[in-house]
Every structure is written in structure tokens, then in C-alpha cells.
Amino acid sequence: MQAGSEIPASRVTGFARAEGAPPEPADWPSPWADWFARISPAPVLWSYHELGADLLGPVRSSDRSDFFKKLIGELQLPKGSSVFWPSAMPLAAKDGGELAADAVIFSAGIRRLKPQVVVVFGERALEDIGLSGSIRPFRQELIEGKLVLGLPEIAALLRNSGQRASAVSLLRAVLSSVRL
Fold first, then answer.
1. Rounded CA separation 92/101 (Å)
2. Is 53 helix (H, G, I), strand (E, B) or coil?
């Protein structure tokens, strides 16, 4: 191998330091604490930038909701095998529905939810959780014992059936080794 042609080592050292979060989820900022109180640990965790708005905001995307209903059906995931943990949450309504990320709270949630696989859609969500530039679409990385899978933005998958089919194939392959 020529000098300079080595395969670069991963720059990912871990999720954000969860020690910065209050120890009890009930003490996390709202709406993170509110959402966490409604969910349970599961082997597969799904996240994307707009998820908090889709779950808690006044305007929800039926396209993304339909996407996940169909995807989870295609993957034949049993009930209780998935949990949705947002990479960003809506700010107060007075702020125009903007989303704010909190990588520390996201990481604290990951540690409590204990997924085996974390599926993150889009670079914006990866940026939200402090992993920007470290995982490319259709790639995976082992981070703190969790397989983190990067996929394109959901909007891109909705527009491109070939990319969507590739995402489904990759998810099938990855999830076939997970005890659901």
C-alpha cells in the first residue's frame, strides 16, 4: 500500500457524553422528558430530524408516517421491536415550530433505551446527534456497542424508488442478525 493510501480510521469515538444530562429522564427538558415517558426500550431505534415535529408538533407529515408504516410492514418487524427517538424536538409554539437538537439528551435516551441498531435518516439528523460527516448513507458504524446505520433523508427515499429499495434491502440484511 502506498503512503497516504491507507483506509482512514473512523472518526467516531462515541455518542455525546450523556453525563451532561440530568440523571432522571423526568428531569430532562420538555418535550424530551414527555416523549421518553411514553416509550419503551426496543432493539431497533429509528431517528430523523423531523421526527419530534411528527410526533409532537401541530403539523405532522402523513408522507413520513405512511413511509414508516409501510417500511415496518415490509420488514415484518414484530410489535415492540421498534422505538422512535427524535434527533430534534419542537421549540415552543411561539418560536414558529422550529426544531432544536440536543445531542446530550439524545445520547442519554440511547443509553436508557438500549437499542442494538440505531437507524438514522439524513445528514441533518446525524448532525443533530453529533455524528455529522462520520456515517455516510448506506453505511454503518459500530458506536458504543450499537450498530448505527446511516440512510438518506426520508424525502429522498420517497422520491427515488431505487434508493428506497436499496434501503429496504440493507435494513433486511442488518436486521436479520438482530434478535427481535
1. 13
2. helix
